[in-house]
Structures are given as C-alpha cells and as structure tokens.
C-alpha cells in the first residue's frame, strides 16, 4: 500500500473517531451547563472563521477579490431575508461576473 | 407533532433547505475531485476520501498539503486537526438526535459543518432532526457524485473559482451561521472568531486558523455567566 493510501486510511479512521466521540460521551457530561454553552458557541465560532477564511484567505495570505463582493451580496440578501439558494447562487454569480469583467 | 405554528418552517421547507445545501456543497465537490486527481491522487483514492473521510475541509487539507509538496503524514495530521471540530458538532447533536445503535454510527459519519448548522438553525427538536438527516444524506450523495464527476473531468473544472464556487461556499457558511446570531453573545463570538482566523492566517498552515478560532467559542462559554441567558437560543428552548 502506498504512502497516500496509508494517509487516507489513517484519516478515515481518525476522522470517524472524532465524529463519533461526541455521541459516546456520557449524558451527564453533556448536561453540564458549561458543556452545553461550549457546544452551542463553538460551531458559531467555527462557522464565522470558515466564512472569513473561505472569502479572504488564499493559502497563507489574505486577499480582497471577487469573493468579497460575493460576500457583500450574501450579507445584503440575508438582511432582506432571501432564501438560502438565492444567497448562495447570487454570491457565486456576483463573483463570477466580476471575474469575467476583470478579464 | 400537531404544532404547525406559523413562524416555524414546514417539513418541506427544511427538506428544501437541506437539498439546497447538498447541491451547493456538491458542486464544490466537483472542484475537490478535480483538485485531488490534479495533485496526484488516483481516482480511487479521491473517491475513497469523499466516501470514507467525508469532511470537506479535511479532504482539501490533505490534498492541498500533498499537492504543495508536503508529506502525506503532515497532510493527514492537518486534516485530523481540522476534523476535530466534528467532535464538538457531535457533542452538540447528541442531545438533539438521541440516536442509538447503528443509527448512531450513521449519524456520526454524517456529522459535518453543514448538517450541524442546518440542524441547530431549526426552531424545534423535530425540525432539527429532520434537518440533520436530510442535510447529511443530501451532502453525502451530492458530494460523492460530484467527486466522481470532478475526478473524471479534471481538465474542465480544475478551477472552480471561474464560476464563483469559492464565493458560494463562503456565502453558504454565512447563511448557515446567520440564524444563530440572535444573541449579543453569539454575535460577539462570531466577530471575535472571524477576526482571530484572519489575523492567524498568515502565520499558520491553512486550516489551522479556523481551528484556533474555536478557542474563542470555548473561552466565552467557559466562565459561569452572571446573567443566565447564554443558552437561551437552544432550539428546544427557543421554541417557547
């Protein structure tokens, strides 16, 4: 088996163990207020970070490009309570259009 | 179950949202399939990653590190570090889903950014469960089909940026985050995490700034609140 296959196997097993761990932790642990707050606020932090890194990150540099315009559209659409698909497809169209115009 | 109060989305609306997410994420799977093969992974390795690992950011991390000339073991380590956020998602989903036996094993595999986000955005536990399973299955199906298509069509879609898919994924994460920003605490955590991830991006391997941002969530959640309102946006409670 090649090095890549070993990496894939390790990632499959380890990644699944991480996903499953949250389900096999005893209930009394889950019912502690502190754990509840952590479980509630951590996804908020991660989603916010995923959003900004996805929009402004390029490897280890930060750039403001067509993606930022897509994000601005998304924020506007969300403020206007647009449906999810409008937000997502609209952001893609705005970014694609800008890139097309920029040549 | 007989509680169709007007402000709640219907089951159909939740299913529609789930499949919208699936299609949006799936189209990005085209990019993953193409990128993996372009970076020296075989079609089978690429397909195995999407089916077995099934957590996009981790998959991109492995392929990215290997593609940039990094060791496979480094790539796997970065991918695992990124995947550790799924443990928090499982922790969040367990009391909502209350699954047992093989369903718990299935739920674990489907516990990813999108299924968790759609689930916790719902106002009731029943809708959360519906959202979780539908989004998990929708993303799994779309992501894997797209991976196969992308892997076989490397030349056509090796650059998903051209059609704005990178912006679409960012917009999708934001749209999923949006309903959770209803308390000042949540908004502060989101702002702090976003800022921290940006500040750390130049200094850390791609992927790690996102993980570091989790510290903001834990840091805010750790101290006992003086005003007991922090957990008030829990779906079961927000129902009242």
Task: Give the structure's gist in a few sentences.
By secondary structure, chain A is mostly helical. In chain A, 81% of the residues lie in helices and 4% in strands.
Secondary structure topology:
The complex is a heterodimer of chains A (103) and B (240).
Chain A: H1 3-24, H2 27-30, H3 33-56, E1 57-58, E2 61-62, H4 66-79, H5 84-102
Antiparallel strand pairs in A: 1-2
Helix pairs in contact in A: 4-5
Chain B: H1 11-38, H2 43-53, H3 56-67, H4 72-83, H5 85-97, H6 101-109, H7 113-120, H8 125-152, H9 154-157, H10 165-177, H11 184-200, H12 208-221, H13 235-238
Describe the structure.
The complex is a heterodimer of chains A (103) and B (240). By secondary structure, chain A is mainly α. Helices cover 81% and strands 4% of the residues of chain A. In chain A, strand 1 and strand 2 form a beta hairpin. In chain A, helix 4 (66-79) runs antiparallel to helix 5. The N and C termini of chain A lie far apart (45 Å). The model of chain A has no long low-confidence stretch (mean pLDDT 87). With 240 residues, chain B is an all-alpha fold. In chain B, 72% of the residues lie in helices and 0% in strands. Chain B is built from 13 helices and no strands. The two termini of chain B are 15 Å apart. Chains A and B meet through helix 1, helix 3, strand 2, helix 4 and helix 5 of A and helix 1, helix 2, helix 3, helix 4 and helix 5 of B.
